[in-house]
Specification:
Layout: H1 38-47, H2 65-81, H3 86-93, H4 100-106, H5 116-121
Length: 130
Amino acid sequence: MNLCPICGYDRLLEPPLNFTICPSCGTEFGYDDAFASHGQLRRAWLTNGAQWWSPVDVRPNNWDPLLQVAAVESSIWEALRTPLTNREASTAFGGTPRTEHHQSQLTGRDPLSIMPKQAAQNPQPAQAAA
């Protein structure tokens, strides 16, 4: 089974691509997500009432769209927070691995929690001129 990245429905028979339609939220992958992000599609589905979409597929017992969305959003958040290793970053983005010096500066930091205002309040010490 496959997970819908829009609503979190975890019983897709096919991966969410190549015109697969999610019976829960009705997203047609490769069409609906061509010009809208998954977050935008999720927000629209929730705004419109998060109703079961499919008239053919039976809604599962105890189906809860808000629990589905919470599960998919937490998995996305964890993926964003997990730092990539040099090799993962290289293969994921098609670039060369970051240098060890640059990697050591990133280790242990959560780049999503640093706001520009905070960075301005805590400037790095100036390097001595040679």
